[in-house]
Amino acid sequence: MTRASDDDLRLRLSTKAVHAGQAPEETTGAIMTPIFQTSTYVQPGLGRHKGFEYARTRNPTRDALERNVAALEGGPHGFAFASGLAATDTVLKLLSAGDHVICGENVYGGTHRLMTHVFERLGLSFTFVDTRDPAAVAAAVISATRMIFVETPSNPMMRLTDLAAVGRIAAQHELLFVVDNTFATPVFQRPLELGANISLHSTTKYLNGHSDMVGGVVVTTRDDLAERLAFLQNAAGAVPGPFDCWLALRGTKTLAVRMRQHDASGRCLAEWLRHHPAVERVYYPGLPDHPQYELACRQMSGFGGMISLDVGSPERARVVAESTRIFALAESLGGVESLIGHPASMTHASVPKAMREAMGLTDGLVRLSVGIEDVEDLQADLDQALKKAAAR
Fold it and tell me: Which domain holds residue 265?
C-alpha cells in the first residue's frame, strides 16, 4: 500500500499540492516525477526485489500520485484507479452480499447505475435518501447496514450533507462513511476531518483539471481499510497507467490556485444568474438564498465552480446548451475550460425520470462547470445564449 509521509501531512495545502509524495529522481535529480512506463521489473534473485514486482501491483509514478492526493486529503493511505467509477466500485467491494448501503438520492448518475444495475445483482441492497436531513439518514439504518455513501455538494442539485452530523451517525452504528469529494476537492472541504473514513475523487475532474485523462483515487484514514483496498486494487486490477498518473500529478500542482479562480468566477456568475430574467432558479451553495448556505459556510472554505440553473423547459435548456460559444457542450467537469451540460439527457440519463423529478432535476436543468477564463467573457456568453432561449 502507498502511504503519505508524516512530513507531507504536516505541510500546508498549497505546498502539499506541489511537493507532497515526490522527491527529485535519484539517478538524475529530475525535479518532475518520471513516467515509469514499464509493465514489470527485473529482480536481483528469487524472492528478492526492489519493492516493485509487477506494475499492476505498484508503479513509482502511481505511488507518487497516491501519496500526493493522500496528503492533500489529510489521510495516510491513497489508492489510484483507472476511473472515478473504478474507485467507487472498489469501495463497494469492501462489502459482502447481504450488506445494505445508505446512499444520497442525488449522486452522479454513474454511481446510481453502478449500485442499482451491478451491485444489487451481486447481493447488496441500497436505500436512497435525502441526506440533507441527518434524521433521514439515521432512520434508514437497519441491522444489515454497513455503509453510508454521500456526495456533497451533490451532482447536479448542489445539495449538501452535514458531514459532522452524518459522521456521528456512522460512528454510533459502526458504519463505513464514504464521501465523494470530487466537486469540492480537498482545497474547499475536508471529509476525513469531519468523520468520514474514506474520501474519493474522480481525478478526471478538478484534481487533474486539464481534461486530458481519466482516473480515480481513494484516501482512507484506517489501516484495516487500507490493507483491504490494497488487496482489491491488485486483485481486480482497475489501475491507471503511469502516463495518466503523471498527468494527474501535474494537475494537482496547480490545484489550489485553480480552485481559487473557479470559486471566484463561480460566485460571480451564480449571483448574476440569480437575477437573470431567463433563469427560473439557480443552484449554488455560495448564494445566501441557498437553503443550506449556513452549512456551506461552516463546512466548506470555498464554493467552487459548479452551478446548476433551471431555465423552465427542455426546449429552452436545449437552446442554451447548444448556443454557448465559450462554454463547450460536453460531459465531465472541473477542467480549466468551461463546460455546459444537460444532466437529464447526459450525466443522469440512467436515473429513473420519476426519481430525477422528485429531487428537482427537471428536463429544464442545465449544469455549468465554470472554468478559469475571464469571467466577463463567460457572462457575455451565457447572456447571449439565455436571451436566445427566452426568445423561443
Answer: 256-390
The CATH number of residue 220's host domain is: 3.40.640.10
Rg from Cα positions in the chain: 21
Domain termination site, one of 228, 252, 276: 252
Active-site residue set = 56, 108, 180, 205
- Whether the CB-CB separation of 312 and 280 falls below 8 Å is answered with yes
CB 202 within 8 A of CB 248: no
Span 356-360, average pLDDT: 87
pLDDT in tens, 155-171: 999 999 999 999 999 99
- The pLDDT score that the predictor gives to residue 358 is 86
Q: Which of 326, 317, 365, 341 is nearest to 205 (CA)?
A: 341
Half-sphere exposure of 167 (CA within 13 A, CB side): 15
CB–CB of 170/177 below 8 Å? yes
The total of structural domains in the chain comes to 2
Give 5-60 pLDDT, tens digit per residue.
Answer: 888 888 999 999 999 999 898 889 999 999 999 999 999 999 889 889 999 999 99
Asked if 277 and 297 sit in the same domain, the reply is: yes
> In which residue are the cell numbers 539517478 written?
27
